[in-house]
Structure formats: C-alpha cells, structure tokens
Fold this sequence. Notes:
By secondary structure, the protein is an alpha+beta fold. It contains 15 helices and 25 strands. It has helices at residues 2-15, 20-57, 75-79, 124-135, 156-162, 186-196, 217-225, 285-291, 304-314, 351-359, 381-387, 392-398, 400-403, 540-552, 554-557, and strands at 84-86, 96-98, 113-119, 142-150, 175-180, 201-204, 209-211, 229-239, 244-245, 254-257, 263-266, 281-284, 318-329, 413-418, 423-428, 431-436, 446-451, 458-464, 469-475, 478-483, 496-497, 501-502, 507-512, 515-520, 531-537. It starts with a helix and ends in a 7-residue tail after the last helix.
Amino acid sequence: GVSLIGTAVELIGNSRGRNHKPSVFLFFVICVFTFALQVGLLLHTRVTAAHAHQARLSHPVHKLSGLGAVRVNSSHAAKASAVVLRAGKGNASPREVAFGGELATSGKELSTISIVLPCAEERMNALNTVDRFCERTPSDQLAEIIVVDDGSRPPLLELFKSDKRRLDQKPGCKVRFLRHEQTIGLMAAKLTGGKAAVGDVVAFFDCHCSPKPGWHEEILQQINENPRRMVVPGITDLDLDTFDEKANSAVNAKCYLTFDLDFKWFDDDSDFVPTISGGLIVMGREWFNLTGGFDEEMHGWGGENLDQSLRAWLCGGEITRAKSSRVAHMWRTGDPRTATHYSVRAKHTNNRGRVAAAWFDEFIQVSRAGQVSKEEVRNFDSVKRRLGCRPFVYFLYRFRKVYIGAGVIAKKVFHLREKSSGLCLARVGMTVSALPCAEGAGNQMLQLGNVDKESGQCCSGLRHYGSNDCMDYMDSNGVHWYSCDVSGQNGNQQYVLSENIRRPNGECLYVDKKVVRAKPCKDLRSGEGVFEKKHAFEPKEYVLYKKELKRHGFETELPDLPDN
Length: 564
C-alpha cells in the first residue's frame, strides 16, 4: 500500500513539473502516517478481543438462552460462566459456539410434565407405578404418562387391559404405550420415551417407583429457574407391601464418578449433584433434545447415568437435587419380588467404556473402564459442537472438593512401613494385613482420602490407591475395607495419619505378627505403631489434572467457580 501511494505521489509531482524533493518529502510523511494508522488498528483489535473474552467469562449460563431475567435460586449457578469456545476440527467452517448452546425457549413457563417409564417385564410394578403417578400428579400439569414396553411378554398393554383399575382408559392418567418388540435395554427405552414426549418437562423414572404427593413442585420451580438444569428428587426406599415409601427411609440423591466408571453415593451440604444414580431424573424437554438425551449406541443396562451427567456438566448444564421432592424406589435386593425377569436381546456394548472414550479425553489414560475406540463414539461429536462442550478436566475442577479435597485423585501415593516390625500395610482381600515391603506392589499402595470435617480439606482417612475403598471398621480380624465416604462423615473411616495412625477413640494402629491391631496410643512401645512413608510418588491422575488445568486456564479464568 505504501509503495502504491509513493508511486502516485511521484506521478502527481512529475505531472506538475515539480522536482523530486517535494515528492520525496510528501512520500515520507504519508509513510509515517500509514504506519501509525496500522499500529493503532492492531492495538484496537487486540483490546476489543480481550474485552470480549472477559465479558464471555463473566456471562451467566442462563442468559445465553434469551430468557431475559430468569431468577436463579442459587448464587452458585450465576457463577457457572458461559465461556465461548471454538468449535472442534470436525466443523467445516469453525465458528464460536456458546457454552450450553442456544435454547429457543423465550421466557415461557414450563408447567406440564411427561412422565417416561421404561418397563421390561415389570408387570404389577408397572401398574402400581402408573397408578401412583396418576394419583399424585395434578391433572392440569400431567401431560402424559409414557409406558415404554421394552419387549415384555405378554405386552404390558394386555396386562393393563386385564387389570380392574383400567388405568389405560382412565382420562386423568393420560397413559400412552410405546413398544419395542425385543428387549433393547434401559437407555434405549428412555430415549424412545423422551423423544416422543410432548410435555414442557420430561421426568424419567424407573418402572418401580412411588412418588409422594407434591413431588413435582420443587422440581418444576428449579427447572424454571434454569432451563439447562436437571433435577434429582430425594430417592427413598419403596415398601413393596404398600407400594409407598418405607417408614424412616434413608434419602439419597448424590453420587460421584470414579475412574473405573462407577458411581458412588455420598452427601454433603451442597445441592449440586456431580453424578446421578440413573433412573430418577427430570429436565426440560428442549434441553433434553438439545443434549441428544442418551447415547443411542448403548445397549443393556448401566452407564447412561454417567454419560448424561457429563453431558450436563461439560456442556453448559447443571444437576441439582430437590430436597422436598421424594420418590420411593425399589432396590434390587434378595427379595425375589425385586428380581429382574428380562434379558437384553440387543448386541452387548461396553457402556462404561463408551462414556470414557466419549468424555475423558486426556484422562482416558487413567480410566479403568475397558477400551473403546474413538471411532466408536463419533456420534457424540455433533453434540459437543452444538453445545460448545468443555474438556473433562473442567468437571474435575468444578467438583475439586470431591476429587482433590477428598482424595479421589491422590496427590501422593505411598507405602506405610511400621518401624517396629519393618512390615508394610497391605490389602489382602477385604482386610488390612502387614507384609514385607515391596516397591511397586499394588496392594501396598495407599493414599490419603475423605474430607476432614473439621478443616474441610484433605484428609481424614486412608484409601487403597487404584480402588474406591478406604479403611473402615475394625473387629477381631483387624481393619476392613469399605467404599469410601468422601464427605468424611463415616466415623469408621477416621484414620488420621501423622507419625501414628490415630482413631477417634484415642487408639492407634500397630502391627502384631502381620496382623494390624489397635490399642490406646499412650500404651504403644518404642517404635510400635510408628509409620513412615516409603516409595512415595505423584500418580498419573494428579499429573494429568495439573497439566490439563493449566492448559485450559480454568483455575485462573474461573477462580470463583463453586467447588462442590
């Protein structure tokens, strides 16, 4: 551009019979002006881009939908930022995609509910479940009850026709039947029902549930506050004799995801839910469809809850619990009435492996779910592009109080050697023994685990590395292993490591001829019950966590993101 301007100046100067000196001077002035203009434009572009990036980081998720002034119940929800991410390489023309995609709903109140019941050989359970939801859901808010008959023989519709309640004809129940001729599996049945739903909100329940009156009220309130929210009711125990909630039932709602792609129950003060248990979940129909609902390539049972949880948290949604909503659920126990009566006819799939391959990205290296190739989960790509999904480390960072603070991801792995005996603590079956120390022996690798209730930090117990189990209760056989209570509320799992391993009752562990026992700490002899760390190392999970967190900048860009 400068050369062209110079040439033009030369031509003008010469055409007017001027000598070259004024022309050269004018050329110099124009060059300086052009250079200054270009520098100014460059600085303006960079400043504008920086301001735009900062605005995106602080932009609340629910405002992306165009809902205007949507009330958010929790201040935490407003902190879940809506970073705008670049679409992946799969896009023909890269474009900026809002975290959470774009909802078409514009301020409409979500008030009607489609209840979806996936039923495979549930028989009387199906009848009683429909009866309870029909009876305890207001007719003006019940859009329909969709019974997805997953290959039952005889078809469930025949059973409903033969039952004296005739729920299939009862106007207030609004029952619809959809049928698979062969049993494909739980998530396929859910997907069939979810896609057919017409209500503003879709409620998925197992075909052996009984709600309490008013079960829907807080759930609808929460979804209206944030239409990208999935809500879990309080899950209680079902009494099969009355088909109602058992007296003095426990109430569960929250799980966390493990690296072997399992889910473990826990509880704390937060109403946010890292991972759902599976069958009982409610969400807006538009959000369900935008996320794709379920993995259509999964067959059988299990894994869909993990996929759906990660779809929510990694792709702009969230999961909460509704404490005032209670739905009783039948658990599979030794009672023959709780046994399954079906077998899946579809081709077997490694559902948990599919979840890892789809969502774990760099952390696939530390997954213990079995290998599934990336090519097998290409059906997730369109969802990720549509919703601007984030990498897996965002989920770990979002729930860092569980994953880091409770030691699900160990910062250090070590052996514990007692000085007096020279033996190391080791896992043998479901008890703790003492064996000759052997570097690299997996059954001797320990880590800290479970939140310390007093400090709120890690840790109050000892966890076996590479498993989900912590040291728990003691009896005449010694210390037993049991599933870790990451919240730190289980007193049996209080094993505080300093020089000794102390219990809340004032006792300390020590080794007695390869058996781990406990006695009052004041009674320990010299060197007895004194443990030292050996062969310590930083595990791969933590190395990856630090590396990925730094690479994506979540710690610096989202320092106020809730941690539980």
